[in-house]
Amino acid sequence: MNEWRYCDLVADHVRHLAPYQPGKPMAELERELGLTSIIKLASNENPLGPSPHALEVLATLRGELALYPDGNGFELKTALNAHYPLGLDYFILGNGSNDILDLVARTFLGPGTSAVYAQYGFAVYPIATQTMGAQGIEVPALEFGHDLPAMIRAIRPDTRVLFIANPNNPTGTFLPGEDLRAGLRQIPPEVVVVLDEAYTEYLPDDQRYDPVAWLDEFPNLLICRTFSKAYGLAGLRVGFGMGDPQLIALLNRVRQPFNVSVPGLRAASAALGDRGFLERTRTLNAQGRRFLEEAFDSFGASYIPSFGNFITVAVGQGRKIYDQLLRQGVIVRPLDAYGLPHHLRVSIGTQSENQRFIEALTPLLIARTSVSAMAV
Ligand SMILES: *Cc1c(COP(=O)(O)O)cnc(C)c1O
């Protein structure tokens, strides 16, 4: 028998890590409850599936699956450069944009440094920070969103990274472009600003801003985007970052040589040009959001106005309602791990998925209301 425990062998910051809690996979619920028709509205995936352009190219893959991918991702970077003409050395590819968030932490953080992020910000920021033994500085949210002026005030001499998700997950809040730009002007150049735009494609036209045009002015800015959400390729794991070549070159030193797979590179290159698919995705999402908001309004459930492909809604006992929905084959996301025990996050699905979610939720909320009315 071992006389030592592995726990004693690792640094405190590793021992105290709380693992990321992903949305429950459908197959797992199927195994556990023997349910068949399950819907998953838990991970902000695209209810339309992948872009058909991606599926087309994936169906052609044969012999190249035996080969290592192009570690420099020339084809995908060239496709990206056609959309954002910066030069190929402004791009870095990741195994999901998560990989890039992690690369930033591995490159810039370590003991004796700190990273700033917002309360109710994306869970990966504190995990990536703590994994490196750096200190996380969590800045209280303002109306569930980023309080950027307070985050800037929280920057210390040892701060190397500031994470911003815009729109934010899990709250769906949004910082207007002009506020972001004004904030960037006040952030010292030695702090890398990670602008995580996983949901940027869902922004309404009148809220769009173009941070790519700011890269010359702010060499400390790293814009992160993903193919997981609007492009419908979450299963393939492809994301990308855009930033100053100096910054990108540093991240590339730390990056694993073949971090994006052959299918991921090919599918993402094809999906990028599929404007029609993005438009259908945006339209379906806007309709679904309106439907869910009206339903929440009709039974007086308050929700955080969302700029993404999900809505965070107050339901009372989040974990309990989550469990009750699971038993009806509806997977959403409880947010107690985020410090929001009264809320659930629901991804916007197809119209029939949204309807099924509301039909499952309504009796639970009505039961809750009448119980609390009796208790009064
Ligand atoms: C989903 C998400 C990501 C990216 O996920 P990947 O699949 O790793 O690209 C990044 N940031 C936020 C805020 C997200 O919600």
Q: What name is given to the CATH topology of the largest domain?
A: Aspartate Aminotransferase, domain 2
Total domains: 2
Structural class: alpha/beta
Query: Would you report the number of β strands?
Result: 13
**Which sheet architecture does the biggest sheet show?**
7 strands, mixed
Q: Overall mean pLDDT score? A: 95
User: Assembly type of the shown chains?
Assistant: single chain
The CATH superfamily of the largest domain appears as Type I PLP-dependent aspartate aminotransferase-like (Major domain)
Instruction: Please identify the top-level CATH class of the largest domain.
Output: Alpha Beta
Order of helices and strands: HHEHHEHEHEHEHEEEHHHEEHEEEH
Strand percentage: 5-15%
> Whole-Å distance between the termini?
58 Å
Strand order, main sheet: write it out. Answer: 2-8-7-6-5-3-4
- Overall body shape: globular
Helix content: 25-40%
Unreliable stretches: none
**If helices are DSSP runs of H or I spanning 4 or more residues, what is the number of helices?**
13
Family: Belongs to the class-II pyridoxal-phosphate-dependent aminotransferase family. Histidinol-phosphate aminotransferase subfamily.
Cofactor: pyridoxal 5'-phosphate
GO molecular function, one term: pyridoxal phosphate binding
Pathway: Amino-acid biosynthesis; L-histidine biosynthesis; L-histidine from 5-phospho-alpha-D-ribose 1-diphosphate: step 7/9
